[in-house]
Amino acid sequence: MTDVDPLHDVDGEAVELLQVLIRNACVNDGSEASGHERRSADLLGTVLDGTGVDVEAFEPAPGRTNLVARVEGSDPNAPTLAFVGHTDVVPVTEEHWSRDPFGGELVDGEVWGRGAVDMLNLTATMTLAVRRLADRGWKPRGTLVLAAVADEEASSAHGVHWLLEHEVDAVAADYVLTESGGIPLPGIDGLKLPAIVGEKGCTWATLRVHGTAGHASQPLRTDNALVTAAEVVRRIDAYRPETMIHDTWRRFVSDMGFPAEMVDALLDPARLADLVEVMPIGMARQAHACTHTTFAPTMLHGTTKLNVIPGVVELDVDVRTLPGHTAEHVRAMLVEAVGDLAGKVEVVRLQGEDASLSPADTPLWDVLASVSRRWYPEAALVPYFSVGATDARWYRRTGAVGYGFGLFSTDLSLDDFGARFHGDDERIDVKSLGLSAQLFEAVAAELLS
C-alpha cells in the first residue's frame, strides 16, 4: 500500500475524535426525546473552528442537532459532493459487552464502543478529511458538503429527511457518500471493494390476529389469539418467497471473480436456495437477503392481564423489500405466508419506503475506483446492494447518486464487520480509521478540483 502524505497524524486524530463521539452516547431509541445529537454536533463544530469552512447547525427538535459544513466551489456548474454521516447510535445491552460500550477504549489497535462501526468511524473521518482539505487552503471548483446528522437510526425525521424538506439549499448534492461499503473481499484475481449502490426498501407491517377472549382458568377448546399468533409467527419465519436475481446482484457476482461453478449457482434461483443453506453464515445471510424480500417477526403484543385469554394479539413484522416490490406485494406475500389462517389475520399497518438504486457508471464511481488503488493497487470496485437502510435513500429520491463507501483494512473481515453492526463488543481497527480519512480527502480533491 502507498500513503497520502499526512498533514498531521490522521490515525491518532481519528482515534481521539471517535473516542469522544462514542463517549457522547447519542443513543437513539426512536423517541423524540432521545438522541441528544447536539453533543456530537457541537464537538464536530469545534474540529472545524478556525478553518474558514462555513458551519451551520439545524435543530428540528430540542437536542436533535444536525451540523452542516460547506466548502463552496468556484464554479456553480461543477458538481456538489456530500459526505453524510450520522451521529446517533442504537441502544445497548451493557451486560452483554466485554467492555464499557460508551468508554471509547483503545485496546490492541481497536477502538471499542457503540457506534465504532455504525457509523461514528466514518462520521469522524469525513470531518477530519474536510478539516485537512481546509487546512491546506484547498479551493475547489465544486462544492463539498459535510452533513453530520441526527436520527438515522430511527426515521431520519430529525435528520436528513428533515433537512432535504426544510433546508435543501444547505444540503443538496449531486453525489453522496455515506455508509457502509469498502470492506476488502478476497477474490481469485485480487481484492474486491464493494461499494453500496442501492438498498432494500423497509416496510413495517402490523398484523392483528383475532380470537375469542375468555378466562384463563378454563383454557380447554378456547380460541386463544396468542396461540394462533404463535402459529402465524412460525409460518412467517418459515416462508420462502421467490428468489430474485436482479441486475445489481448479477453484476456483483460476475465482478467478484468467483469460480464458474459458484457463479452459476449464485445466479440460478433454484440452486441459490440450496447454496445459502451450506455457505458460511455471514455470506449466506447476505446472499439470501440480497435476493429475497425478507420477513422477520420481531414484536408481539397481547393481553396485559395474566388471567385473560386474549381475543386480539398484534404482531409486528420487519419486511425488507427488493426493487419493484411495493406495499401491495408485501400484503399479498403475507397472505400467502399465513395460508389458511388468513381469515383470522388482519393487516392493519404497512408503512415504509421502496428500495432505491443508483447507477454504477458515474464520475464518482470512477473516482472511488481510481483513488482506492492508492492503497490497494490490485483491487477492483464492485457494486453491492445493501440489505439495510441508510440516509442515501433520501438523497436518491432527489435524483442524487448515493453510494456507501469507506476504506477498511484487511484485518477486518466481512463477517466481523457485519456482526458488529448493532452488535455486542462493537469496535473498529485504527488502520481502517486512517484509510477512510485519507480516502475521503482524496476523493473530494479529485472529484471537485
Would you mind describing this structure in some detail?
The structure is a single chain. The chain is α+β, with helices and mostly antiparallel strands. The chain has 2 domains: 10-188 and 356-448, 3-Layer(aba) Sandwich (Aminopeptidase); 200-353, Alpha-Beta Plaits, CATH 3.30.70. The chain is built from 15 helices and 18 strands. The protein has a 6-stranded mixed sheet with strand order 1-2-6-3-7-17. Strands 11-13-9-14 form a 4-stranded antiparallel sheet.
Low-pLDDT parts are 1-7
CATH architecture label name of the largest domain: 3-Layer(aba) Sandwich
Number of domains: 2
Query: How would a crystallographer describe the biggest sheet?
Result: 6 strands, mixed
Rounded average pLDDT: 94
At a glance:
This protein has helices at residues 10-23, 38-48, 120-135, 160-166, 168-171, 225-238, 247-255, 260-266, 269-275, 281-291, 327-338, 363-372, 392-396, 414-420, 430-448; strands spanning 54-58, 66-71, 80-86, 106-107, 110-112, 143-149, 175-178, 192-199, 201-210, 214-215, 294-301, 308-309, 312-321, 345-353, 356-357, 380-386, 401-404, 427-429. The protein is an alpha+beta fold.
